[in-house]
Amino acid sequence: MSRPRDTEIDRLETQVDQLIKMCDLLANENALLRQRQSALVAERARLIEKNEQARSKVESIIGRLRTMETDA
What we know:
With 72 residues, the protein is mostly helical. The protein has one helix and no strands. The chain is rod-shaped.
């Protein structure tokens, strides 16, 4: 028959094992979230650059249209 102290130690060991598994799971999840964040930051930078290029082209077109309008 197991003593109460042995049962308590077994219970604590089980809890520690569960905590270790949870820490591993959270560490993996955290790494995945950091990778996703990095990808999103890079995508945002690309989109900002594309937006700037589009804005520049539109401004150029507007400038040419205004020039054509004043020349006409």
